[in-house]
């Protein structure tokens, strides 16, 4: 009996001991999207520090104490899940993607914060919204996706500078471009190829290229657009025009993940409603114009008659082609608790639709972060890129194909009877420019080669749990080279027996940042985050250029040492330094009330006496949804009210020594001398913007419907004006601070989840309204530049021209309005009036994304309204002064013109040599710029995981898409999307792009 009791006791003890031991739980984590395993998922025993990560196959094994009963699963981009465990059986988890997880985090460049707690107006665009979109300039990805942002393309040249305006125009004469920040570092943006110190390069007037286009769009994780004072005050003297923060992809915890992406496509020029006459239409119209000028049938030249043996040639088709585009990218991503990494390499090629234009791009990105220990982390971001582009001359150049296809008659063949090309200088060539661009393009070229190094080395030391010391060292180094060659065999190079100009520009921007930051929460009710930073930025720009002439006409001799005679040699240097003190603090009480305060003091070398300025902002947010009175209601899932006010400055577009009196070296009888170059103003200071923003964020039905609305008002004071002064000083103007510009607007973004389940359908809609007004100028005076005026009470750069009154039905004369309201056919007696503005009043975008199993369809519409476009091209193709000059005409010019008394038509009587200044600048060529564009359509299919089996491939997606597919507009020109000037002048049309490709993840 005793032995039995002893045995029973031992068995009971053994059982209790086993029960008290840790259990080993195993399982697999997969994605709801494609049922594929997810590596790198954090698996943690809830309430403890015990945790592991899933392996490459999504499997895990974790030891769980007997006292714990719940596992927690978390991974970036997925909703965190908890699972109760019992026994030791396998635990298999399906994680649900959380589309809000990434978009809920906004990046200001200096700080990262949760969207729900932010007091700022910040719009985010994540990579999922623009994946696989084939663009040369990343700014294109913002079109139609962000409220308050207007991005327009002045040219279809690959890599051309885009016009970007955030919440209107702040400055009359300085820059209005936003500031760009990549991975926390302020970077340069714009054209670095054109050397204005070289006469040949400056006069060639090529389309400027944007160094930002070197960035590979497939390396971008997200854009954060900072719009209100609470966000942009952190950038002080450089933030007035808004800030675009670009974050590149980083490493993440998990097994190595490799991605390969290949894409190929075709591009076609899109001419909108613009059409030119064919040979028969051209001959009929030219004959009519000559007869109206008093020329008899017998006196009409043979080459303008059907009997003249003329050919019929489409010069538009000759100038443009179907371009090809191709992109290939490969990347690796992964890491563990100690090291995170992301590497990528990309090659891209995009042919311009205009002959002689295109771009090739190469990129290499490396983002590495190493956790040395629990308190010290270091990292290195390195982004290398190189672009090699060919740019055609603008339409103002005689040798440009853009001007050439319009200015050459369709009855003129490019080929001689023997099949060789005319050069355009032969006797009898019927074209206004005297150039055959098909002949010129085979010899002449303008090349741009840009190499960019973006590097950032950083370290974070956690001194205490509530205090971190950070150091950032960064460089943005740009080397831009341009070469312009004009062959002696062509009309451009004939006069100098061949010429070549070359330039090399180095732009170096160094930045150091030392900061203390942290957070402190004494209890669950109160929390405080803070940042104190010292930042120093130094820019150095140096360039050299040279040109020569008399070069042997041979493809092998296309360098400066082949020029027998030097023409010029020049160079330039410039520097800028900014020292900044930055402070930011955010206080939160019970996650209901948030207060954000920013302070920045900048000292800049641009100014002589007023180097320093202090900028500030205060923002607050009230999370109404967290109030007790909201707990029982079932409609709202989010409700937040926020407001901000603050100041910022504007250094955009300013010369590096804008307030200084400058001298320039001159030649005085072959001896060096100095001459005044710039009249300074010691009291000059920054333009300063004061901004107010009021925002409301609402969510309904568990955020299936979310709405964000903002009202803003901005006033920019101390506008820089060129004040007229007595010419006895040697100058006609001097820079002064006077004037104020105001922008007011309203923005609305609406996101809805229409269907959720087997079929998922999401819609994003946004609309923005902006009103610009000049409140003050020097003594109320007007600032007139060409056909634009800046006048108190009107938008900056309003259209200012004579108002078209139509055609006199009695005689076909052109008519304009006089000051008293009557009409006149004398252009010089007509009154100039303000007629509309160049920038749109309303912009809008609509995106729909539909998923069904492994299929996804998305499409994006965007558009604008409320602006006027000056169709300057039309003023040429409808100008009867060009009849019998070889210049072609628009089809519309020959369809609706005055022919007999009583005709009510839109075009005057066509008279060779012109009809009373009919095509001089007036509102005749001012058209509404309203349009709606189908910007992007994308269809993709992912192979089911069952098909991939054990191939080692996690996911393969095939996709096809179209860009700039359809545009609905009443505008008669090439494209209603113009740059900020609102002027279309022989525009390089934006192309329709069709691509297909695959994306594979291993």
Automatic annotation (TrEMBL):
Gene3D superfamilies: Carboxypeptidase-like, regulatory domain, TonB-dependent receptor, beta-barrel domain, TonB-dependent receptor, plug domain
Domain of life, source organism: Bacteria
Signal sequence, start to end: 1-20
Positions of the TonB-dependent receptor plug domain: 115-243
Domain TonB-dependent receptor-like beta-barrel: 395-965
Keyword 4Fe-4S appears in the UniProt entry: no
Region (Disordered): 902-921
UniProt entry tagged with the keyword Signal: yes
Protein localization: Cell outer membrane
InterPro entries hit by this protein: Beta-barrel_TonB, Beta-barrel_TonB_sf, CarboxyPept-like_regulatory, Plug_dom, Plug_dom_sf, TonB-dep_OMP_SusC/RagA, TonB-dep_OMP_SusC/RagA_CS, TonB-dep_rcpt-like
Bilayer topology: Multi-pass membrane protein
Keywords tagged on the record: Cell outer membrane, Membrane, Receptor, Signal, TonB box, Transmembrane, Transmembrane beta strand, Transport
Protein family per UniProt: Belongs to the TonB-dependent receptor family.
Protein's recorded name: TonB-dependent receptor
Organism: Pedobacter jeongneungensis
